[in-house]
Amino acid sequence: MIKYKHSDITPKEVFINRRALTLGAVSVTGNLLIGSMAQASLNYKKSSFSSSLKPNSFDDITQYNNFYEFGTAKDDPYKYASSLTTDPWSVKVEGLVNRPGSYNFDDIVKDITLEERIYSFRCVEGWSMVIPWIGFPFVELLKKFEPLSSAKYVSFETLYRPEEMPGQNYNILNWPYREGLTIDEAIHPLTILATGLYGDELPNQNGAPLRLVVPWKYGFKSIKSIVRLNFVETQPATSWNMQNPNEYGFYSNVNPNVDHPRWSQATERPIGKGLFAKRKKTLIFNGYADEVGSLYAGMDLKKFY
Length: 305
What we know:
The chain is about 10% helix and about 20% strand. It has about 300 residues and is an alpha+beta fold. It has a single domain, classed as Oxidoreductase, molybdopterin-binding domain (Sulfite Oxidase, Chain A, domain 2). A hairpin with a 4-residue loop joins strand 4 and strand 5 (about 125-135). The two termini are about 25 Å apart.
């Protein structure tokens, strides 16, 4: 992937962070607007894994979302996610690891270098975005928690708090939301845990304070607002696969050659280009085939969809 120039990204005005995701290194630089509003500059480095594609606007990214915990309409997360309390936050780590326990957010990101990664992001519904995430490789957590060699998968759970997440008061899915990856997928250099986007901490509607980003898979695999990691030997249950296994497989790799039973996956609609914008051809593994294709060598991608 070609590294994207930070100078091409439009700065966003925000309030100073409620939490120092910079681990104490919050600064305001000269190229940012100064006044009653100021950009909270995270302490991160640019990643060589970034796409050369131009990111969507901040409004696109934060006002058009799937986050059913807040409702099924695309603007429901933007409207209702402010009710979510994300500080303090802890993540329970359990299963086949040497260091299980409940870890608070600051301990999780302590001593980890954050990176900016501009990734193409495709939804199974046929739309796509390009997002400038701030995060760190998932493999960094393995160094902290020390999974056993018997751990073949890692499962994830989203927060269950229906008093703050109104969509959880409806039987849309079997709450809490669950996802999973093979260990090989989880430790791949492209897989990150995101703590921010557009140079700022992660908005609630995008999965604050900690979400998974797996850019070669459909968006629903990138679970939001994570509160639990479980390292296991057998393939874990995942929410959409539990809901409708004929439509949503465990792997959920972007594959234009395997249609969703109710619509084609061969093309996608870029968000921000208008409702009648020309659709673009969907790329196998969302354009990351050179990087991740070897993970599925010899696998029947129509059977293991």
